[in-house]
Automatic annotation (TrEMBL):
This is Beta-2-glycoprotein 1. Residues 1-18 form the signal peptide. It is found in: Secreted. Disulfide bonds join C23-C66, C110-C137, C205-C248. SUPFAM superfamilies: Complement control module/SCR domain.
Amino acid sequence: MERLFLLCSGLLVTTVTSQHNVCSRPQLSGNIEMSGIQRFSSPGEELALACKEGYTPLSGPRKIVCTINGVWTSTKLKCIPKQCPHPELITNGELFYEDTVYQSAINYTCHEGYMMTGESSAVCQANGTWSSPAPECIPIPCGLAPVPLYGMVIYDKVIRGNTVNYGLKATYICNPPYALFGNPVAECTASGTWTKTPECQVVTCPPPESIERGYMSNNEKREFFYRERVKYGCESPYVLEGNVEVVCQENGKWSEKPSCKAPCSVNLQRARILHNGKKIWIENFQPNRVLHLEIVSVYCMNEARKCGYAVPTQCIDGTLNIPKCFEEPSGVEYTLKPNSLPSEIDQC
């Protein structure tokens, strides 16, 4: 209460007046904003509330009132940030983000060998959309692979135009008599360039060497170029072991030459042998010759079961080892009792 003194016609008059409390500008939190700019409000005045940009009202009254006590009424209004749609994965790249609400950010990167078209980042805006669409990661291009002199390039797939993409590989081939020096496979790299191009260089080999008991298809005493070939053969009855032909290699040397292997004789006086599926008495085995790597069998006796069995042995370059179980019969047994020989009795 407040007293007011007035002097009227010599008389002192006292009056009493009352003053109501006013509300000062409220302090609001939680991303709520209010209308109006006045510093003080009288009891009964209302103040409209709203959410700040980028936030959405969830619940509670949208206004508060100044009471006679100079205190604003309370509000349960909540403002939550707007939500942007979840971003989709990008091909040949990665994206990184912690949330998708207002003012959240997405950062994009591309894998090695790919470059980005579009923005590398986006921010969730007040209207619930991203500030920019997702970028694309496209392969880094290279020009066509360099072609070495006297050579050619074969790509992993069909090429159209004058550019290829990161990761494509190309194989190099040199035209004879040139040989390839360097890595025969090149690749379009992440820097947009090709790995090192090999070179095609002339390679020659000395005249090929002859082989014992054999002959060659070409006896010229000259240098032979890379990938030239020479064939070998053997005189009868020798057998060629190894490749029939040799080739001049990129290191200037011939591939491994073959050799001629000698036949074998079956050094038995009295026996019946098995050769090429036929049983033959040794005296009828003419000529007495088994070629290199051919197999001949002799017959041994199983004393316990009194039956015979064939044991094979192989000719190796002129040597034919007779199995230890073989016992050559005496002349009498061979001539007078041939049916008792291991080759003639029941077989085990």
